[in-house]
Amino acid sequence: MTRHRGFALLGALVTVVALVCGVIITGYGLLDSGTRADRGGSADTSGDPRTRGRTPMGTAAPASADNWTGTWAAAPAGAEPGAPVGYPGRSIRNVVHTSLGGSKVRITLSNLYSPTPLLIGTATVAVGKGGGGPEAVAGTMRQLTFGRRAAVTVPPGGQVVSDPVALRVPYDSDLLVTLHTPRAGGPVTYHRHALQTSYLADGDRTRALDATAYAPSRKVWRYLTAVDVLNPEARGAVVAFGDSITDGVGSGYDANRRWPDVLAARLRDQHIGVLNEGIGGNRVLADGSSLGNGASGLARFQRDVLDRAGAKVVVIDLGVNDILRGRETDPARITAGLRELAQRAKARGLRVIGSTLTPFGAYGGYNATTESVRDRVNEEIRSGRVFDEVVDFDKVIRDPYAPDRIRPVYDSGDGLHPSDAGYRVMGRYLSPRLLAERAPAQL
């Protein structure tokens, strides 16, 4: 081979390598874009917007990168009654309670149930003084940005993620997330059973540290659906996915006594977040958004579980409302829906724990047919043919002398929802070892 031919061959090889590298890099970019679109849903504009995920915005990293882990979440449940154009010219202060601490924080805002763009003029986050009040700890107020801008427009049916901001977020503490909406928008996307007082103020009071400007509002969360923290010690998050019993209906107001709160306290030393994605009235099979009960479990599972930052385990407690509200008489349809949720979670590497359906014998709608359906669903769940593991919440809170009813000491008084004592025993019954053993993704 001549020297000239050798140089020509070398040049050709360099060209090929460059082309291959270009294809690999381009492919990686497309793959990353697709992954973000899957997490965010912005690439798919077809179908019902209530089933879409977050709209990526700003510099927020993908959920699986850099140890971003959810510390708090609430599923969007519907459009708030009595607020058809939002709260123009007012500040909304949401009080949320962390499970996991961190050195940086970011939030997700949702406009899921509005056909109108939502303008957020200013947004802030601060550590609260506690007790569910609107007062902030001095020195902790941080302005949030979106794509490095103070204002952001959330598209109809969409979500946005803030840029990360440095803030020392404590474990087991209140955070204040405050939004100023300078002009009218559409219906407010909200979470109906927050069991936590929110606050309203006139004008832009997003940086206010004290409570002077704020008046208590309804016990709901508005627009805010997730808070993530950056924590190198975080080992992932457990997502509690269910209905009003996961949502905590029947527990004390401004007290954080839902069973996921009890579980969060037990997992705190292990640096594991707990995210409550329960919606009162929610069903596996049917949409209840018009009543503030959220999209069906099947429709919202991607957004509320699989897209959550750092999710490693999901605990599914869903199906009672399919019987009581949906009047479903075929237990196989309910268990088929639950099985599909479990399969989708396992396909993403999450460990799946399912709960038996708890008693409702003293609640309206109970009869021999509804009890038979519940019993047959529970029989299938206990068989191990639906979930990886089973937590038998039915066994934990039922009355041993009347198994179709909640034990009186655990009953909030309506025959369906547990009391603080009932939620406490449920949160303590779920073994941390059950969350970690043979898990496909290490906690």
Strand percentage lies at 15-25%
Distance between the termini: 59 Å
SS class: alpha+beta
Task: Report the average pLDDT across residues.
Answer: 87
Number of helices: 10
- Sheet of most strands: 6 strands, antiparallel
Helix content range of the residues, please? 25-40%
Weakly predicted, low-confidence segments: 1-65, 439-443
> Strands across the major sheet, in which order?
7-6-11-3-13-14
What is the general shape?
globular
Q: Please count the beta strands (DSSP E, at least 2 residues each).
A: 23
Gyration radius, rounded: 23 Å
Can I get a quick summary?
The chain is an alpha+beta fold and 443 residues long. It is 27% helix and 24% strand.
Characterization of the model:
- With 443 residues, the chain is α+β, with helices and mostly antiparallel strands.
- The chain is built from ten helices and 23 strands.
- It has a six-stranded antiparallel β-sheet with strand order 7-6-11-3-13-14, with no helix packed on it.
- The chain is globular.
